[in-house]
Amino acid sequence: MSMKIFLRFIRKIVPNILLEKIQSIHSNFLSKWILHRGSHIRELSHKSAMVFSPHQDDETLGCGGTIALKREHGIPVTVVFLTDGGQGFVDLDSHAQGKIIQTRKQEAVTALEVLGVKESSIHFLDKPDGKLQFLAREERQKTIQQVTELLKIHQPGEVYVPHRQDCHKDHEATYKIVKEAIAQAKIESELLQYPIWLFWEAPLFLKLKLKDIASASRLKITSVRDKKHKAMSSYSSQLEILPPAFVNLFLRSDEIFFTE
Predict the structure, then answer these.
(1) Neighbours of 198 (CB within 10 A)
(2) DSSP assignment string, 91-139
(3) CB neighbours (10 Å) of residue 242?
(4) Integer Cα distance of 197 and 39 in angstroms
(5) What's the mean pLDDT in 190-214?
(6) For residues 234 and 109, what is the distance between their CA atoms, to the nearest angstrom?
(7) Quick count: other Cβ atoms within 10 Å of Cβ 181?
(8) CA gap 31, 197 in Å, rounded
(9) Can you tell me the distance from the alpha carbon of 63 to that of 196, in angstroms, rounded to the nearest whole number?
(10) Count of CB atoms within 10 A of residue 158's CB?
(11) Which CATH architecture has domain 46-258?
(12) What are the structural domain ranges in the chain?
């Protein structure tokens, strides 16, 4: 049985409230295990960074503390949003969709300002939310080219992307697009993957194998944790619909990253 079929089966037979409780227990266990058993300590590097975020909030949830630490040390950080964030978790009519797009853009600017990133260092590629993996070939190549040009311009020492198996199609598509763009840009940059939905959605070892866990590292963000919390609170449109237990995963004093 494939993982997608397995997860679909579980969601059909388990009530939503119980499923959320199970996901909370599982994700807390897995993340704590990685933090305390399966990862090594990562020191803050002084390399410039480019953070690729599928939606407006992923960058703050996944690596907001890292962004804040780098900016406090005067290290350049550029953030690129691939989709317009127009769908979220519900189907919206065109008027409501346009409104949420603008709302989420403003939330992103506000959150990143808290973290120390100026608006001039934020790029919105405005691809359709929920359809990044379904882009027509020409549009996909255009997107890769846009990312390639940004990489060439900024020459980041580190590139941050969602985990390659992050249990969300836009997130996984972001990883693939950025990986291809790095190859085309021919730059030397460390690729760091941040988990968003991975711990919450994937049963243990169905996606995250022992060899993946062995590549995990953790960065201590205690000194900027309050700043990250404030940035997260800027995303009020998303906090209204995200499970509280899911949000709590990102309120810790460490951020987890994976390499290949």
Answers:
(1) 25
(2) ---HHHHHHHHHHHHHHHHHHHHHHT--GGGEEEEEEPTT-GGG--HHH
(3) 16
(4) 19
(5) 80
(6) 9
(7) 22
(8) 12
(9) 10
(10) 20
(11) 3-Layer(aba) Sandwich (3.40)
(12) 46-258
Q: Distance (Å, rounded) from C-alpha 255 to C-alpha 100?
A: 28
Whole-number average pLDDT of the chain: 89
pLDDT digits (tens, 9 = 90+) for 147-179: 999 999 999 999 999 999 999 999 999 999 999
For residue 156, how far is the Cα from the chain centroid?
A: 18
Q: Is 106 left (phi over 0), alpha (psi -120 to 50) or beta?
A: alpha
Residue type at position 148 = T
Tokens of 54: 């599928």
Place of tokens 């949830």: 61
Measured between alpha carbons, how far is 218 from 258 in angstroms, rounded to an integer? 9
DSSP state of 2: -
Q: Where are the alpha helices (H) located in 116-254, listed in sequence order?
A: 137-154, 169-185, 198-201, 210-213, 225-233, 236-239, 244-248
Output the six-digit token pair for 229. Answer: 């919390």
Query: How far, in Å, CA of 49 to CA of 189, rounded?
Result: 9
Kindly report the length of the chain: 260
> Is this structure's pTM higher than 0.85?
yes
